[in-house]
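User: For my dataset I need records formatted as: sequence, then structure tokens, nothing else. Please produce one.
Assistant:
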Amino acid sequence: MKNRAVVIILAVLLAVCGSAGVFLYVRSADTRAIAGQQAVTVLVAKERIPAGTSADSLKDLVEQQQMPKSSVPANTMSEVDSSVATLVTSSEITEGQLLTKTLFTEQASLAKGISIPDGMIAVTVPTEAWQRAGGLIQKGSKVAVFDTFTVMDGKGNTPSGDGLSKQYERNQSTRLLLTGLEVLSVVDEKKAAEDGDVGKAIVTVAVKQADAEKLIHGQQTGTLYFALLGGKSEIAPGNGVDNRSLFGN
């Protein structure tokens, strides 16, 4: 009888210990889960914020919210601090969008909603629809620029400098001028896009000084064509083609 009582007591103790172990494990798992979903404070746009809005005027345009830490980008802002106090928004921020420090830029680099990348300048080229991929090129597009020009006599595929001559005895050439340029804006000169017409427009791209010189010179001495680049476009500098080599002759 005595041995039976001891066995019962031991069974109860094991059951209690087992239950305690399960409880502690579950509690530990819950703690780990909560830690993984730790809430952090973020700034969210309450309404549309136009490009060029100064950081110090965002008080009534943003609000703080709590979000799981695991779902928030590393550069998300929790407040408008001194690191952006003198900056302005580099592009439009939509309602409900998280604010990150990458959305701000120096006032001097922003013109009419265009943010010019550091170290670059903006250059504008007038174009027809057929010179910009039928109007498919838009703000943010990556493009290559080709130049068609009259060839200097006896100088291979070198521009003559007198524009694109249409005289039949003159040789013309087309060569890749630049590639990998970012389009900052495309502005229709006549607002024809409202009528569904794709016509003349000015294309503004971001370039280094050396590329700006090439782009401007090419515009003055030939005819430029913007080609829209895809994610896997293959393009490289070369001698191009002229009237003599067009068909491989």
